[in-house]
Amino acid sequence: QKEVEQDPGPLSVPEGAIVSLNCTYSNSAFQYFMWYRQYSRKGPELLMYTYSSGNKEDGRFTAQVDKSSKYISLFIRDSQPSDSATYLCAMTHTGRRALTFGSGTRLQVQP
Amino acid sequence: DVKVTQSSRYLVKRTGEKVFLECVQDMDHENMFWYRQDPGLGLRLIYFSYDVKMKEKGDIPEGYSVSREKKERFSLILESASTNQTSMYLCASSAPTGASYEQYFGPGTRLTVT
User: How far is the C-alpha of B7 from the C-alpha of A38, rounded, in Å?
Assistant: First the structure.
């Protein structure tokens, strides 16, 4: 079983829809939770980062962490065609330099 | 802006060849990483380095080696390329914070081994 599970999609939604992307994990030591966005033919870029449990909002994006359920989510409100990309969750803990990534969910927002 | 560059965007090599993938970062970052990305498997860590001449194995180091002679440069070496090493290779760097969650990635090198 992988340490981090993520539905690969693809997920296709109409412009303006609310998008929900999710990951589950098995390692209870993870404390730092990230969402990276990867456009086609580019490297991933950090989109949001959350420490421990709770919510974090940045414009149209909201990241949620539920450590008790080992479940993290990324919500995108008013989705735009420019949000079309692969979204990768990643996580780590203090003292560990490397990240553990999910397999990524490909999102397509239709105009 | 942090910039991570990789020597080639596309590379085609033959089975058994020795392959060098080069990565350079311009932000004086201590940590550098090599990942491979395959459909359905996500990013898997091959090796990382936390200082010049220092390296640690990641999750899938078999068939690979690395070299870090200068702080800004991290090389991935395929000693004898095989077809199962056909993949997208991504290099990343990060600052030495307590949890190096913000990694900066290069554009990737798509390697095909025939």
Answer: 20
